[in-house]
Design a protein that fits this description.
mainly beta; 6-stranded mixed sheet; 5-stranded antiparallel sheet
Length: 525
Amino acid sequence: MSCYNNHKQIRTYITMKHTNKSSLYIISSLTITTLILGLVLSSALVSADNDTSVVDEINITIPVSCTLSGTGMNTHNAEINNGQYNSAIGETTMKAFCNDNNGFAIYAIGYTDNEDGKNVLTNSTLGSTYDIETGTAITGNDSQWAMKLSTITNPAPTYPIIIAGSTDDTEKEQGDPDYTSFQEVPDDYTLVAKRTAGTDIGTSAEGSTLTTTYQAYISPTQSAGTYTGQVKYTLVHPHNATAPIKPLVNCNPSGTTISDIICMQDIDSSNKVSILASMTESIPHSLYDSRDGQQYNVAKLVDGNIWMLDNLALDPTDTITAANLSQYNTNAPDDAIANLLRGGNTDNNPGWTSEAIVNKVSDWNSISPNNAYEYPYINNVSKDTVVTSYGDSNGKVGVYYNICAATMGTYCYPGSGNQPNPIYDLCPANWRIPSSTDIEGILTTIAGSSQVFDPVKTNDVLNALSLSLSGSFQNSSANEQNTIGTIYTRDISPYTIILTYENQYILVVNSNRGLGYSVRCVLNH
């Protein structure tokens, strides 16, 4: 018999909840039953010259199986008065096991409603009001909580878990947290323990044992209330496997009303009708973009479409954002996203940031590579700048995009002649840059015309679309902030934009598509 072992990266999850409710999640070991069959057929009379025996060989493959389970995970309750410190809120024991010799690593992350250890708006870290931070303080003005780990050594395991930062942990870099003492509960996936080798199966396949203890310090000014913190421990195999990717926001794609929805990407063809029916016209709702955790107001407007009321602030130069871009959350496939992130030329465009080299169709090959239209460019310096705004807009500039960046590198052509419509854009999945028809339709519905010269009707449009007078970007600076607002459209002429001038009139005009303008998105029809 031959036995083969398939090495796979196995990720298992266990969530610890320190709440008012008792919670226990245990991922059980995979039980493997091995059956070996041997079949020998032979003749009644066997000799060296006429041996007709047949051997039937059966190969059994046993896959890698890893488990992480918890015991003693009852509710941990602590009552701490203001200004006090509690060094032992609760203790939990975990057991980890893999059935091969390549070890495993355990990562931990503290999280709240958004499962990333931080509220994406306030950067606080614990409780429904997000005002207890991770940390290790025993005095001070900030409430904090922390954790430390230890191993069970009685009986001593053959292959013990090594706690991160300990003297045996040679893989940790100097300055990394030492979880043998209290450290802040991490707000990103952080290595807390590992076992580098050894199956440690034993008779009960329990593996190695790890204990976590929690502490908290409550500030003298902390508001009374009950606060809930959670820590998720994730086992990956082998011990040097890539850390889990932290989700930025917990979305809810199964939502059927606007109150159920968390992310812009949650709305699709399966629930759009019910969500639209649940929305009151012009009432804003706050949704997240799952790619970077940015929050935007959206609303159903008088044309029956759901519009963004804030300028897009997606920054593909940000490392976390780039890592989270995928065809599942972006209005483009993976190859277009990879193209956007591939790197480009900024030498001839001061103030611009380029993260792309575009795909060019064959008859565009003679275009000069120094032309500003040919490469996607963004400028993110002003994205949090507050400008004059209307309606329910948060009044921030957002990121400036040239048309090549706004269309994910699918429209990057400086010349005249046949100009194809963009195929993709930077909007969240299920959303898109509005068409000229969308723009003209909303203008006509609100003001009676797609060209608005009446200051009263102009004001109606500004408030309905919650426009921000974000100006534009060219060469090395932003221009006409608080004077002009701009929005790209995607078809007819792909560089057509809507311009608002000093609250007096609104035009849909052709403009220099190599400059940086704002992007708004509308839900797909």
